């Protein structure tokens, strides 16, 4: 009988278990290594690409808490994420088994084991590892599961609706408008739409319209000919031409002025661009995705955004929920960012307390996923111990944006209209915990006008 090529590492502090395990497993698997010292695990993982690790949960004399097993489980998954880990203990219960699976274990075995059952579990784990090996890193990253969907992490009903909409819309040519607050993942959604579309093998061009000045708009989007203006030293294609055959993502489209909205609408209707300095129209073939954090429907009512342009870009709308409306996902995101930054900053032993996770899950997160990402990175860098605690994070009271917590105080000679306006906007934002609608109502201005003042004063 040919042996399974799977490579197995058995870690247990009892020599009898190691001997019995090796005698059984070497009959069925090509490579079986055993050790009674868990501190050898990092070195062994560097030497050999193990497919499966059979890991005991307790090593200290008389220990039954399984803390050591969960510690080494975490270490293994950080050092070799694709290795399948099967935990073993003589003191198991349902709660421990559930926790083991949540923390990344493939399965859970009680000692003394049943030979047939153990072999079946190991063979399944080996097949899982073989499947992972066959996937490229990119396809694994884009594995469409409820937990990890093409760049998104989340299991909440709100995110499930987003996933379903992306799946339905992606393979069509429909223009998509993505709406959501800052930091909710609008670019992630745009890239997911592109990757799932028929244009996936072609270009994905992103233009941040909030960063493009009016004077450079036409040159950036439409291109220019040599000599079209002072610094035009050579011909250059614009982003619209560069995206031909692929997807053009216009981020922050709500920031466009009326005149630029008209120029963009003309191009989208004609499907042609004319480079600056020429009069020759050039055809374009793009799939258009736009995004904004601004209240475009309010802007249409106020005359700040063209209704005909809105109709052109929003064949389908995708609304990304703020993090406070998908609290089920916060723990998953915390664990994801902790893994990322522990690896980036070489903090493999750093954990996070349950009280910290609870505190972070209760926070309002006005900056959404981007704020959580930055908070986790900062905490990992600055934490002195081996566990993150609530005081390792700066969380603004009531969940108000951190930038609005401290209202600036001006001296008497600084009481200009601009300074007073900035102070009033800050006060309103603090009073209403960053709620734009309520702050705007208190100030007696529209939401759009308040957004403009926030941008104007750098708040």
UniProtKB/TrEMBL annotation:
Stretch forming the signal peptide: none
Domain Response regulatory: 7-126
Keyword Transport recorded: no
Record keywords, A-Z: ATP-binding, Nucleotide-binding, Phosphoprotein, Transcription, Transcription regulation
Residue positions where 4-aspartylphosphate is found in the record: 56
Span of domain Sigma-54 factor interaction: 152-381
Keyword match Nucleotide-binding: yes
Pfam families with a match to the protein in the record: AAA_lid_14, HTH_8, Response_reg, Sigma54_activat
PANTHER family, alphabetized: ALGINATE BIOSYNTHESIS TRANSCRIPTIONAL REGULATORY PROTEIN ALGB (PTHR32071:SF113), TRANSCRIPTIONAL REGULATORY PROTEIN (PTHR32071)
Name of the protein in question: Sigma-54-dependent transcriptional regulator
Annotated source species: Pontibacter locisalis
Lineage of the organism: Bacteria, Pseudomonadati, Bacteroidota, Cytophagia, Cytophagales
């Amino acid at each position: 009988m040919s042996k399974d090529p799977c490579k197995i590492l058995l870690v247990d502090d009892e020599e009898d278990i190691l001997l019995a395990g090796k005698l059984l497993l070497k009959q069925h698997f090509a490579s079986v290594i055993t050790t009674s010292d868990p501190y050898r695990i990092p070195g062994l993982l560097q030497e050999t690409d193990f497919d499966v690790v059979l890991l005991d949960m307790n090593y200290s004399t008389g220990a039954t808490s399984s803390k050591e097993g969960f510690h080494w489980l975490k270490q293994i998954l950080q050092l070799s994420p694709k290795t399948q880990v099967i935990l073993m203990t003589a003191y198991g219960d349902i709660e421990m088994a559930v926790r083991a699976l949540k923390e990344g274990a493939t399965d859970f075995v009680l000692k003394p084991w049943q030979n047939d059952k153990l072999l079946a579990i190991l063979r399944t784990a080996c097949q899982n590892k073989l499947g992972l090996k066959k996937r490229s890193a990119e396809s694994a990253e884009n594995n469409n599961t409820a937990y990890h969907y093409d760049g998104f992490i989340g299991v909440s009903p709100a995110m499930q609706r987003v996933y379903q909409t992306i799946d339905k819309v992606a393979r069509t040519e429909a223009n998509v408008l993505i709406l959501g607050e800052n930091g909710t993942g609008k670019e992630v959604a745009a890239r997911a739409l592109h990757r799932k579309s028929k244009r996936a093998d072609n270009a994905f061009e992103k233009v941040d319209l909030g960063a493009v000045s009016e004077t450079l708009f036409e040159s950036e989007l439409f291109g220019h000919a040599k000599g079209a203006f002072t610094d035009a030293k050579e011909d250059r294609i614009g982003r619209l031409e560069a995206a031909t055959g692929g997807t053009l993502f216009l981020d922050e489209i709500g920031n466009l002025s009326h005149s630029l909205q008209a120029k963009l609408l003309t191009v989208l209707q004609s499907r042609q661009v004319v480079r600056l300095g020429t009069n020759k129209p050039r055809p374009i073939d793009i799939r258009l995705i736009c995004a904004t954090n601004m209240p475009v429907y309010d802007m249409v009512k106020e005359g700040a955004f063209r209704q005909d342009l809105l109709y052109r870009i929003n064949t389908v709308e995708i609304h990304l929920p703020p993090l406070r409306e998908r609290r089920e996902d916060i723990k998953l995101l915390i664990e994801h960012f902790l893994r990322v930054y522990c690896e980036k900053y070489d903090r493999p032993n750093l954990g996070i307390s349950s009280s910290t996770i609870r505190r972070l899950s209760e926070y309002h997160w006005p900056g959404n996923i981007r704020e959580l990402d930055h908070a986790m990175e900062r905490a990992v860098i600055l934490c002195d111990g081996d566990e993150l605690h609530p005081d390792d994070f700066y969380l603004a009271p009531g969940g108000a944006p951190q930038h609005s917590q401290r209202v600036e105080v001006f001296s008497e000679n600084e009481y200009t209209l601009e300074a007073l306006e900035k102070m009033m906007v800050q006060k309103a934002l603090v009073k209403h915990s960053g709620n734009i609608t309520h702050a705007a109502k208190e100030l007696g201005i529209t939401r759009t006008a308040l957004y403009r003042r926030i941008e104007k004063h750098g708040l």
